[in-house]
Amino acid sequence: MKICVFGAASAHIDDNYIKEVEELGTKMAARGHSLVFGAGGTGLMGAAARGVKSGGGYVHGVIPHFFREEKVELIYENCDKITYTEDMSERKRTMEDEADAFIIAPGGVGTFEEFFEVLTLKQLGRHGKAIAIFNINGYYDDLEKFMRCVAERKFITYDTNAMCEYFTDADEILDYLENYKPSKTPWRKLKTGD
Fold it and tell me: What is the structure's pLDDT at 131?
């Protein structure tokens, strides 16, 4: 399975996050999965890639040309394949199309955008892929609480809220992805509840 991991590029985050995501990558490779990611060499992007490579797995990085040209961030140099895109939108689209499933590791604004895009596309029936949120150190506790609040106030349906799952353990994430069965609920019901 090709698993897309979205996560922080920051090199300034606590090492515990790095270790957890690197271990996730190692376990992905051990279970025969490959990585699709944003090609960053630092933060949780770099950790996922190092983990997958250390386990002998395949790594596909996707990054806009301007990241290389303007040295926006360090690019992971051991990608088996690297795809350069024209812009951020094409980058996301390429990762979304390549992936069979998504893991959302802790991250910042870019990671939030990527998560909400794949969730929105799933809600609209554009894909039926699993979305697992890696809730390291309670990082996404407030997001989970907020999403429940949004559903309670009827801005989204409870079915939409259930289209992603929260995990604190890498093995549980991989078990979930490997055994995931897409919902047969029509997308209109997911979106409107009708």
Answer: 98
